Amino acid sequence: MKTLTTILFAILLQPVFAVCECEPYCTCGHGPGGPISLMGDHTHDAGEWMLSYRYMSMDMDGMYRGSDAVSAGQVFGAGYVVSPRRMTMDMHMLGLMYAPTDDLTLMAMLPHTSMEMSHEIDPAAGMLVMLNGGSRYFTTESSGIGDLKFSALIDLHEDGAHHLHGGIGISLPTGSIGERDLVPGPGGRLSRQLPAAMQLGSGSIDLLPSLTYRYHGEGWSAGVQAAGIYRTQTNWHNYRLGHRFDLNTWVSWVPREWVSLSGGLAYRWEDEMAGLQTDLLLRPPFAPARLTVPTAFAMNYGGQRIEAIVGVNFLIPEGPLEGNRFGVDVRLPLWQDVNGYRLGTDITVTGGWRYSF
Ligand SMILES: [Cu+2]
């Protein structure tokens, strides 16, 4: 800790760089940039390409109702025979950016997602425990390519200090929504359709509008981005995920040309799901008065939350790896308010690499 403090002070006492004097920092977000988990937060000059890779690990832990943590017992008390306990999602994301003109940047992103959700069965549901081989716990998994996204970012204003760009994108349903795994039910542990929370894509064509403003000062920058997901259709499993709105704000401080520290706040609102996941078991046949699991029902999707973001980015200023940028950021929930009964969001860690040429 003492070493860390010394290093921090050593960085602090260095003269602040006028970041914009040095190529290639100006060309891609002025210095090592804002939090790595942000998408489409910058544009490029004509002829520039950027390759990126991000790894994101997200944890959801414990059930919530509204903004209160609830126990599995309370979920069973609300009529469900199964309660989710925890979910982890690991995502690899490849990104490509290209600017055909100074005012237009094109962006493509392809994720690969792996998810795991653990569940607990109500001890009073003896029949289901028996069908699960005598255990009260089971875990489901899914893994594969997600939805392919294309966006166009259009520069609306740029004067050195102020930068504004708008984006419009489309998300194509390349991610599977037919993922299955072994789930206890009639006949025992059989391969069954997983709920939407465990599917790899939305199953619908989605529109991705966004608006991003950045301010560049001497040795620091700040930004705000509003971004939405509008789902245009009901998918072939008879549901439509909720529309989504994200508001991200951040401040980055660039104490040296090769490092930036950033902090910010992220707000997300997600609508309830529409439609019924009719291919899921909704009521256990041996206890028809009860419901199966919260993730099978549309009213348990969506909600809103506020997260704090803390991140660091590095830019390799010289040598054979010159221009390569690395970043990591951590998101922690400050407040959340879920619809119905839903797993609460815990820590999200994103690490990544970016290189423009
Ligand atoms: Cu870029």
| Residue runs with pLDDT of under 50 for 5 or more positions | 8-30
Strand arrangement within the widest β-sheet reads: 1-3-4-6-7-10-11-13-14-16-17
Assembly form of the protein? single chain
- How many E strands? 17
Number of helices: 3
Task: State the CATH topology.
Answer: Lipocalin
Radius of gyration: 23 Å
The CATH homologous superfamily: Autotransporter beta-domain
What ions, cofactors and ligands are bound? copper (II) ion
Order of helices and strands: HEEHEEHEEEEEEEEEEEEE
Structural summary, described in words:
There is one protein chain. By secondary structure, the protein is mostly beta strands. It has one domain (about 1-355): Beta Barrel (Lipocalin), CATH 2.40.128.130. A hairpin with a 3-residue loop joins strand 10 and strand 11 (about 220-230). It has helices at about 1-10, 70-75, 125-130; strands at about 50-65, 70, 80-100, 105-120, 135-145, 150-160, 160-170, 180-185, 190-195, 205-215, 220-230, 240, 245-255, 260-270, 275, 305-315, 325-355. The model is unreliable at about 10-30 (pLDDT under 50). The longest helix is centred in the N-terminal third of the chain and has 11 residues, at about 1-10. The protein is elongated. The chain is built from three helices and 17 strands. The protein starts with a helix and ends with a strand. An eleven-stranded antiparallel beta barrel has the order 1-3-4-6-7-10-11-13-14-16-17. Strands 8-9 form a two-stranded antiparallel sheet. A two-stranded antiparallel sheet has the order 12-15. Helices cover about 5% and strands about 55% of the residues. Copper (II) ion binds near residues 42 and 44.
